[in-house]
Amino acid sequence: MKFKTIIEPFKIKSIEPIRSTTPEERAQYLRESHYNVFLLRAEDVLIDLLTDSGTSAMSSHQWAGIMDGDEAYAGSKSFFRFQRVVQELTGMKHVIPTHQGRAAEKILFTITGGSGKLVPNNTHFDTTRANVEYSGAQAIDFPTAEGRQPDVIADFKGNIDLAQLERFIEERGKENIPLCMITVTNNSGGGQPVSMRNIRSAKELLSKYGIPLFLDACRFAENAFFIKKREQGYHDKTVREIAREMFSYADGCTMSAKKDGLVNMGGFLALNDDHLASQARNILIVTEGFPTYGGLSGRDLEAIAQGLEEVLDENYLTYRIRSVEYLGEKLVAAGVPIVRPPGGHAVYLDARAFAPHIPPHEYPGQTIVCELYRQGGIRAVEIGSVMFGKYDSTGNLVSPAMELVRLAIPRRVYTQSHIDYVSEVVQAVFEGRKRLKGYKIIEEAPILRHFTAKFEPII
Ligand code: F0G
User: Fold this and answer.
1) Is the overall model pTM greater than 0.85, yes or no?
2) What secondary structure letter does DSSP report for 21?
3) Which one of 259, 265, 288 would you pick to mutate in the ligand 1 pocket, going by the greatest count of ligand atoms within 8 A of its CB?
4) DSSP strand pairing (252-256 vs 267-271)
5) Do residue 324 and residue 286 come from a single domain?
6) Measured in angstroms, how far is the CA atom of residue 261 from the centroid of ligand 1?
7) How far apart are CA 54 and CA 186, in angstroms?
8) Looking at the DSSP assignment, which residues form a beta bridge with residue 118?
9) Contact present, 456 and 442 (Cβ < 8 Å)
10) Ligand 1 atom 4: the closest Cα is on which residue?
């Protein structure tokens, strides 16, 4: 290409104003929300990087699909379009619409989970882990060693550790493992991609033991794009072909369409096994809805079908991955410690290295999250001891391997100057890092505590 600037491959037709507030106002809002940014009002946030989930801007074609949605209770034309698009993408026989990803997880693990069962994954996302555990089963993560080291630069840090997985199956017994999951990209492990080779080898290994492979496919297109850019033999393939190959190794998948479906709500469970599908549909009818709409309206099904086509546009993916990388590069240049290389949907600050004077039990990630909001009105999310911390039998906090702060970039929402502003704020917080102080939790729920926990600064 002649010019080096990668531009947003769209123009803006409709805008949504964002509101500036003062640092004093934000300090007050933080106090009122007990230093938990999930409890802030979104209108008090300037740049919202809490999540890339359900925050995408839809295209004019998707909005047209919204008008075109068929709201028939049964047999809606929108369902058949949705089903066709998902079947063409995944190659899977059964497509079960759900209102979001975790509803698909709930159905899957209600059937396959239960006491004594073990579910391996490269890294479970928090809702996936919660759904596995809620069923009575145990969720176990097998990230690779390099996936646990923020400053090690490697192409596929999202991979599942196959040697550990095999040892685990041998030790714990294949009959106790109803399925194995691979999360693409590996969200909790830094938004890092999984290689095709790793998915293929995982499938081969699992086949030996008769264990099905499921993809947690939320960010399948971003993962496929990384494969195209980084894995030998894929450069000349289209992202669609790569995505199809990824799915071809799986027996099923759970999908939150709120990410690479480019919509604000929706998801599905897709699988090949007839018996499992029929059990899933029975639960779907009780908890979500009739099989041709699940938890969704016809209009949502249209928007997802359209989004799943648009997300495979390579101009879009080039811009998407570059905009995240651009933020990562700026932060690295300023010396800010991040998980390297940057992930597909987010830049993850390495809170341990950012604020080494704050121990994990004083939640360094939470401190940085609060400070990004106070100084710049930016909302990020802690992915560390708050989200994944557990207590041992003596009540001591057991921390996860990494203390991260995720700056998730919504799809097609922010422009380059927004990203420049984010970089400036992160750098300002980093410059004042020695003055940062930790937090303590004063109230928490027994499960998924990060959503509602209340904090107090340690003075
Ligand atoms: N799996 C992964 C890898 C996810 O990132 C998410 C959601 C889910 C499953 C659940 O999907 O929200 O539609 O029920 N991740 C969001 C996030 C919430 O902020 O990363 P859901």
Assistant:
1) yes
2) -
3) 259
4) antiparallel
5) no
6) 12
7) 18
8) 138
9) yes
10) 125
